[in-house]
Amino acid sequence: MASEHEIFVLIEQFERRLRSLREICTDAQKQVEQLERENSVLQGSLKEQQDLVKQLRKKPVISEKNTPKSKDVGIIVKDNLSETDTKAELKQQLDEYIRELERCIAHLSSLS
Fold first, then answer.
1. Residue 37 needs a FRET pair 20 to 30 A away by CA distance; which of 8, 21, 64, 75 works?
2. What residue segments make up the domains of the chain, in order of their start?
């Protein structure tokens, strides 16, 4: 049979473990509260972003009336060329414009 001293030692160990578990539980509760606050803030931000997406989807797309016609683009390019520009330089410049347009289209597609 266990002596009285051994029983006291076991009780003290039990009490230390109990205090440790209480501290762990308190820390976990604090962390849960912090995460809930963070979640609330993020939910608000998400709602704002969703509202913004809805507003952007409602805006009309640029109509063809506002976009230059192909003959207008030719005039713009022609006016921007100097005497020394070559066909290769023109092709390179047009390729750059096309890449930029593709980036813009990709960006707009990712918004929807």
1. 21
2. 1-59, 62-112
